[in-house]
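Response to reviewer comment R2.3. The reviewers asked that we include at least one raw input/output pair. We reproduce the pair for Monovalent cation/H+ antiporter subunit D here without editing.
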Amino acid sequence: MTDWLHHLLILPILLPLAVAAVLIPINERDRTVKGAIGFGSTLVVFILSMILMRFAASGTASLPGSGVYQLGNWPAPFGIVLVLDRLSALMLCLTSGLALAAQAYSMARWHTAGHHFHSLFQLLLAGLNGAFLTGDLFNLFVFFEMMLAASYGLLLHGSGPIRVKAGLHYVAVNLAASSLFLIGVSLIYGTTGTLNMADLATKIAAIDAQDRTFVEMGAAILGVAFLVKAGMWPLSFWLPTAYAAATPPVAGIFAILTKVGIYVIMRLHLLVFGTTAGASSGFGQDWLVTGGMLTIAFGAIGVLASQAMGRLAGYSVLVSSGTLLAAIGLGHGGMLAGALFYLVSSTLTIAAFFLLIELVERGRDAGADVLAVTMEAYGDFDEDEEEEEVGVAIPGTMAVLGLCFCLCALLLAGLPPFSGFIAKFALISGLFDAPAADLAAATSVADWIYVALLILSGLAAMIAMNRIGIRTFWASIEGTIPRVVVIEITPVIVLLAACIFLSLQAGPAMRYMQATADDLLAPLTLSDRVLSAPRAGSN
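Raw output as returned:
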């Protein structure tokens, strides 16, 4: 590998940071210019992510610098390292893809609703990419805070009393989570003397009983901080309101924020508290199972109770988070690939739904939203006065919006033949991957409850989406056709097309997910690669 390829690992962080700094002094009247620069930066990051994902998919030997970037040329665990593997490459690609869709959507009109939208967006992207690439807990905190600080401004973008109220709640909750993060990191560092995740994985098994208590206490506090971000019940009370109040492009990119918490929990749980952790192996697993299942149930109830599409999408985020948390906690190695497939599919679907909501609601009647009653209640409707035409032509805009809404409904409910169904099938198949003779011993009551919750949450999504879809597209009061421009509907179509492509390429995608799962289930292999990575210029 040439030296310039080695530096590709840090560009997804540096490029958005540099562009954010460049955009700040540009006059706000030139938002189109700022938007073009920001979109171009995100496009470059997306291309870089695809290149890095290709390196990661082809194996460790082909990764630039063995997939380890040593800042200052200091080796781990003494220096700051960025680590690229299949999982981090997958998250980089997913993040930049969502960012492209959200930015394109915003340039229709939403980026003019406040100041410094594109600068904040680039800072958010830098924080997300840094969180996925970093190899130590301290810099995870740094990138986590960068991401949160940008998200505060983006959530408040557009002002309005509802948005400000939800934004202040969001800020308060996440500041509390950040404080817990620092406390947890301090306990772990004070006991082990390291914050490098690869180094922790090698030291955890040898820690004595007294120090192990402090490490597990720090890990528990750290876990609470990330479970707040992941939206696990009962720490998720803020999420549906905050996401529903955000502007559509902000809500679209926020679909990946809960996955940051999922990513960190998955990474630490399998790397630090995996099968090689000795007495700490499986630490917190039961809490993840219980909390994840309760989150699925809470989210499904919220989906059924939601009358507004924004809140329905917010509770769908909770269902997605609960499904992933419980899958991690159940500890079946065969489920991990399905969980990763579900993570990608659900994130793309929810982001598309958030972008679609505002377009659909432009044509909805306010009375139908508040009262949810039939057309006859709004006037002197007489069935005898129907027009002689047998059918009524569907306007092109409503046809496109309706088709996108139907695809979202099928994906959220997990119905065949789309990626939502494939993901749930992979999860259930991985749950019962033991030989037939050992199946009864390998499964537990929790496994069957998880299967029931997967099915019931899909049923809840189907009922709720049918109810809102009928009210919006079938029983429209005024028949108002919303004005939708191409730059707004295109990102929605692209995200849904990505889900369809994922469905058509489920075989190659599942092979990549399985290889990623195999990497995660062999934590010492990753640790050895990070700790033994050669310094730049050494032979």
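The chain has one domain: 2-376+396-532. The CA atoms of residues 187 and 449 lie 35 Å apart. Further pairs are available on request from the corresponding author.
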